[in-house]
Structures are given as structure tokens and as C-alpha cells.
Amino acid sequence: MKFTIAVLPGDGIGPEITQQSVKVLKAIAERFEHEFKFEEALVGAAAMDLFETPLPDSTLKICKNSDAVLFGAIGDPKYDNDPSAKVRPEQGLLKLRKELGLFANIRPVKAYDKLINKSPLKAENIQGANMVIFRELTGGIYFGEKSTSEDGKSASDLCTYSVEEIERIAHLAFQAAQKRSKKLTLVDKANVLETSRLWRKTVTSLAKKYEDVTLDFLFIDNAAMQMILNPKQFDVILTENMFGDILSDEASVIGGSIGLLESASIGNKYSMFEPIHGSYPQAKGKGIANPVASILSAAMMLDHFGLTEEAKLVRNAVEISIQLNVCTKDINNDNHYSTEKVGDFLESVISDIDDLPIN
Ligand code: IPM
Ligand code: MN
């Protein structure tokens, strides 16, 4: 089959990890006789240096003309500590999500048996943990009206949600729960926030359509604690934009490294696949960044294309690399492989393995 993939490496370690995903996708294309066309474009600080905007129109156009977007990372310390900066790299990613209508960000989290001791959490508490976080991605406080008073002494970020915005992601989360352990946890702050009460009301009434799914509720503060105490209680978590951002970074501790966590951002028309981690500028160019989050994001892209065998093969290759300790420094400190070497290994497994995956 033929697919056009927009590749947006972005900033920091973005380019080096994305390069490994492209390598893996090329190996998949070759093995399964697909035609993947890669269209590279600038985003974030990398785009600002040339175009003075973090999301040039040309980049958006390439994304809209592609079947999916593979996104690297965004952010540069030179903009982080300048509160007066009018434009920031991160705005490129936010605008991209908005323009492409990517309202649902799907973030799977699991404990790998082999890496169980990499997590600072107790092995017995996390062994077998397996959940997926559905984070609303184009609403809430991230996108509400923003202002700073003229004297600079007060500022405001508005948080709004509509029933429609809640329903469209809630449907996806319920459907995912139906295919998993049939449990959905809505995380909110309904004891304080009006928007959270709307989430509860909307999701509760939608639950009637999904009678096989058990719905429960947790306040975000409690959910943050439960994530550490007993993450095995979670199956599907549904939550608004900012709570999902925070909770998923916290959840990454279960897997042993944030460098392993992939995500899919889905809309009605477009889709984008991005690791949940940031641009890790301190590691840029050092060959120590873990490419697996990006590569597993590429696997989610293959699933999205309907290429399930191909996606399984990528995931199997990653499992093999973890089993054999072919890992970057975040996971294998003593005898680590470089970003590129991990990519090369996965490429060779994909090209050479005889038995196609069965699980
Ligand atoms: C993420 C990131 C982004 C977010 C930043 C870079 C704008 O932290 O994808 O989780 O907050 O959504
Ligand atoms: Mn984040």
C-alpha cells in the first residue's frame, strides 16, 4: 500500500530519534512491499530560526497533504526563561494540534517485566500494570482566552469545555475500554471546577450507551497518588488536557523511562504520532536519546493505517531489543547502545526475522 508521511523532527533530540523511526518504517515498507513517501518539514524553534514562526504555512500544508504526521519533539531552552517572548516553539505544536483537529491523545503505559527494577516504584506494585490514557488535546486551559493586565500584575488563562468536545473523546475512550478490561476512570476535579462537573455529567450520561464498561471517577489529586500507589487498578483513563499532560508524565515512571512512551493524536480527518517526552536539549547530538518512544509511535501509525501485522512486528522488535539489553543509557547504563545503534538493531530484526509475530 502507498502512504505519504509528513516527518516533523522539530527540536533537541527530535531529529535523531525521528531518523530511527524513519529507518524502521523503511524496513517495514521493504519487507511488506509498501510504498512510504516521507515529506520532511520544519516545526518549533527549528522553524523559528528560519521563518520566525514555529509553524510555517508550508509545514501545515505538508501535514494536511499527508496520510499521517510523525512528530519528533519541540522546545528550546533559549525561549524557556524569557517570559516576555511573544512567540514560543511550543505554540507550533499547539497550533498544529488545533489546525489538524487532533482532539484525542492516546498514551499507552505499561510495565515491562525486564525493566521492572528500572522504576523507582516497588516491583510488586507495578508488575502487570497496563493502561491507556485518553488525554483531551485541543481544549481546556491550554486553548482558552489568555491575557495579562497592562500593568503586568495579573494574568489569566481561561478553561472552557463544551459537551461536544467531551463527548467525542469520551466515545473513543469507552470504545477502547470495550476492547480492553472494560473499565473507564474519569479523572477530574469536580469538587472544585465547573468544567469538571460538565465532564462528569456528560460522561455519565454517555455511559448508558456502553453498559459493558464500568465507569468510575477520581479527583486528579487522588489519581496522581493512586498512579504511584496502585497503578494496576487502571485500565482506560479519560481526562482533560492539562491533567492528562501531567498524569502521563507521572505514569511514565511505571515503564522505567519516559523514553519508552509513545502516543497517537487523533482527529476526524488527520492524525499525528508523537513521543510523550520533550526535546531533552541537554542530550541533543550526543547519541544517548532513546528512540523507542518515537518508534512505538510509528507502530501506532501503522495500526492506524490498518497495517496490524507490521505494527506487531515493530513492537516485537522493540521487545527483543529490551530482552537483549540493546538499549540506550536511560535503560542500560552499564553497557549502553547509541540512539543510532538501537535504530540499526531494530531495523535488522525487522528485515531479518523469519517468523512473523503471532501475538
Ligand atoms: C506534551 C508536551 C506538550 C504539551 C508541550 C511541549 C506543549 O508536554 O506533548 O505532553 O504540554 O502538550
Ligand atoms: Mn507533556
UniProtKB/TrEMBL annotation:
Q: Where in the cell is it found?
A: Cytoplasm
- All copies of the Isopropylmalate dehydrogenase-like domain together span 4-346
The UniProt note on the cofactor reads as follows:
Binds 1 Mg(2+) or Mn(2+) ion per subunit.
Any single Pfam family the record assigns to this protein:
Iso_dh
Q: What is this enzyme's catalytic activity, as reactions?
A: (2R,3S)-3-isopropylmalate + NAD(+) = 4-methyl-2-oxopentanoate + CO2 + NADH
Q: Which UniProt keywords apply?
A: Amino-acid biosynthesis, Branched-chain amino acid biosynthesis, Cytoplasm, Leucine biosynthesis, Magnesium, Manganese, Metal-binding, NAD, Oxidoreductase
| Record-linked PANTHER family | 3-ISOPROPYLMALATE DEHYDROGENASE (PTHR42979:SF1)
Q: Which NCBIfam families match?
A: leuB (TIGR00169)
Name assigned to this protein: 3-isopropylmalate dehydrogenase
